[in-house]
Amino acid sequence: MKITRIITLLMVLTALALSPFISATVYEEYDCSIKPDGSFSPDGTKIVFSGFDDEGKDKLFISKADGTGAKVLMPDVPKKEFTPDWSPDGEKIFFISFNAQGNGKIYVVNADGTGKTELMPDSPLKQWSPDVSLDGTKIAYVSRQPGSKEKLYIANIDGTGAKELMPDDPDKQFSPNFSPDGTKIAYHSFNVDGKLDKIFIVNVDGTGKEELMPDSDEKQFTPSFSPDGTKIAYVSFNEDKLERVYIVNVDGTGKRRLTTATEGREYDPHWSPDGTKIVYNGNVVVSVPSDGVTGSVATATGSSETDANADTGAGDEGKSTPGFGWMVGAGMVLLVYLLARRAA
Known about the structure:
The chain is mostly beta strands. It has two helices and 25 strands. The chain is globular.
C-alpha cells in the first residue's frame, strides 16, 4: 500500500509538471481568437467585439465608438462567436462560430444581427481569425487540417477560390491583417532563430516574406496596419512580463508602447479609420500618441485614465480562453489520481 501511494504521488507530480505543456498543446489549436477582440466600423462610429454575455458565453457585441452602450448582436443565437471583422461598407460582419460538426468556421452576418450564414460550408477545414481586405474583394484567415500546422489562407470574399498563401513555408502562421492598399499581409509566426513568435509581412501572392523586426528578441503577436499603412500596432511583452500594445513603423523602427498601464493585460489592437485611436481588449479605446507621448484611455464607461485595467486572461501569450490551461492541467491531475486509486 505504501508503494502504491508513492507511485500515486509521483504520477500526480508528473501530471503537474506536464500541465503547462499540455496547456500549450491545447492553446496551439487556436489563434488569438478566443478573447474579447474588437474593431471599429468603417465609419468610425461603432465597435464590434467578442465578449461574455450574462450567461458567460462568448458573443458578439456592438457598442459606440467609445466602448459604451454595448449590446449583444445576436442574442437569440446560442453559438459562441469570436474574432469579428467588418466588411468595408459596414453592412456585414465576418466572424468565427461553430458549425453543426463542432468546427470553428467563418460566418457572415448583417450588421443588424440578421442573416447569419456560413461562408464556406463545403470546406472541411477549421477556420479562424478572418480579415477582410479594404477593397472588399478578399478575405484572409487561418486554417488547418487535423494534425497539420496552422497556415494562412486567402479566398474571394464570397468564400470561393480558397488557397493556402505559403504552402512551402514550414512554420505556423497566425493573425493575418491586410495592408490598406491590399498588397501585403502582416501576420505572426516563428522566426528562424530561436523560434520566437515574430511579426512578418508578405505579399498577397505569398512572395517576399520579411520579418518586421529581425533584431528584436521579444515575442510579438496580432499585428494591425494603421490606415495610412505607415505603422503597425501589435502585442508584445515588456519588463513586467505582461502583454502590452506597442506601435512600430512599418520598416521596423520607432517602436513605442501605447499606454503606461501597470496592471492588466492588453490584447488585439485595431486602429480607428482615421488613425487617431486604437481599440484593444475588445472595447478599450485609446488615443494614438505622438512621438514620446502616451495616449489616454477611454474604458467601457467612457472615462479617461492611463491604466488599461482590463484583464482577459493569458493562454499561450494571449491565444485562448482565460484559465483554460489550468483547467486542463487540473483535469489531468484528477484523472491520474483517480486511475491510481482505482489501481490500488
